[in-house]
Amino acid sequence: MPLAARAAVPSRRGKARLASLRVLRPELTALVALAAALNLWALGRNGWANPYYAAAVRSMSSSWHNFLFASLDPSGVMTVDKPPLALWVQALSARLFGYHPLSLLVPQALMGVASVVLSYDLVRRRFGRFGGFVAGLALAVTPMTVAISRHNNPDALLVLCCAAALWCAVRALEDGRTRWLLLAGACAGLGFETKMGVALTVVPGIAAAWLLVAPQGRRRALRQLLGAGAVMTVVAGAWPALVELTPAASRPWVAGTSDNSALSLIFGYNGLGRVDGQVGGPGGGPAGGSLFGGSPGPLRLLSSSLGGQAGWLLGFAIVAGLGMLAASRLRRSDPRTGWLVATGGAFATTAVLFSAASGIFHPYYVSLLAPFTAALVGAGAAELLGGRMNARIVGPLAIAAGVATELIVLGDYPGQLTWLGPLLIGLGALATIALLAATSSRVRLLAIGTALAALLVAPSVWAVDTLGHPASSTFPAGGPASVGPGGPQGGAFGARLRRSAMRGVPFGAPGGVAGGPPLPGFTGAPAGVGTPPARFGATGAPGAPPASFGPRTGRSLSGGGLAAGLFGDGSLTQVLSYIKAHGGGTLVVSSQSSAASAIIGQGAAVAGIGGFSGRESAVSVAWLAQEVRSGRIRWVLAEALGAQGGPRIPGDTRAGSKAAMSAVASACRAVSLRSSARSGLGSASAVGAAGTLYDCQDRAASLLSEDA
Fold this sequence. Notes:
mainly alpha; 5-stranded mixed sheet; two-stranded antiparallel sheet; 28 helices; 7 strands; 56% helix
């Protein structure tokens, strides 16, 4: 090709791209507007959402050292139990716009909008604008997608990174360019830096698609794939390598581990432990079931815990995907093959993993399945409309599977959308008859549009219902306020929560849960049940409770619940007042969730050394002694109901901070607060109910002797 002609090619491409940018696609504009409205409307009512992460953001935004290592506490004693990428985004936003709930939540909402746009374009590029619109709409109205986009858990960024990895891979399949495959690897690595191993569910499908299609030959395809894997490994391993290469004395302890190693966090607590029955999951005792996403099995994704969150369209997606598979016959020459293997592989890998996982499994995890489900729905709808697969066979089967799936899901929520069942059956039957008799694309469009509209009613109603109540809890969930974690009325979890509230006993305290043992980490008074909503003062004055904007419901466990931890805010505030009057220093408690309220409200130097609930991190006594010697830790509050007690659910043998707390009780000086009660600095009875305060200053040697 002449040099002038070569120069003209990029010029023509650039002009074409500029022209495409000038033409606003109305369907994409509508999707962006819808997703933005669902994710941003009344967002402030969610307050600090998950106080665990909100506390970490405050600590990280106050110190670059804490920022780098994702420290939960201002003193840099313990990290959070996740990699830092999602928290880095929130902490940077807090630095730019101030520490406020919206500075944490708005970036999350925008990530949800971006995921919808990527899902639209992922399908549009191969199946056209109609398919892209259906995919974007299906994702935008998935209830759990709305819930996590209005929350500060890392899942919104995880979904965005995985959707971006898949989008880049599809771009690579179009033209065989290595750079797109390398970008796909980088996006998967960023997903790993967001929530570790679960982000890799997109990798098998992408790898299989690339090797199967091999746009420029299999040898080159293998080299390209190895290069993408190397990029992914470098990106994914950057933060773990930083942690491993930094001396332990110069960084926080890695929460969720017993050996202070990022590798243990990757392969243990956040890795295989989530899959093979880690304590605290469905196999770990009665605390599983509804709270942890239901029992593993082939129908788990349609259970009362998960079905209403992201299971509405699974039947249509699966049949449509199988229909495209049969139509393409996985021929390398068929342009659908690579797309289908990559997207269907991501869907299948994620669905099988989530169905089989017997470790800790929370309902909001299914948000990762939503973009893959939506993509298959959009692509299948476009193929049926275009007649590129047998609409008279696949169409009725897909509609029947979609209607059956929704009826199964609705059956788990008595009293919800009772009018919808007959409508689904009627419209589904009419659409099926129309497809069987269709002689033109216009009739197919009417039939497919009618069926999809009927199938999208339930998730759309639930998506809108999500806006009507705060999503301020450790476990975000979509749908109406009466449906919390575990199904109708909050399932068994919600029922136990309400029983405890009516009896006036803190949820998780001994005797506080009728009909079952207490759960680890759920020990504070339930927020919004029998207590007035707390509001965060603008000045953040000492003693100010954590933020809560708007009313709370029984399904919403916010700062006054989980974060209140093993004792009330009042007791901890009094202890902090005493510490301030006696030289200051960092206060150690067992549970990080116990420390969150004080960090959010006051920026207090409170560190939980036992992990989220006090049982996940088995810190060593030698490490604690070193922290005391360095001056980073002085005070320890050993809670009366803390992690040093025995197992609180059958089979839970995790020691947590038990050894460290026992050494403190033997080596450090117990503090009497009775003399301070008259001056208003503390209440002996209140602190005594919470636990015992110890002063460990100059007791490092004694702690080491206890360890020996």
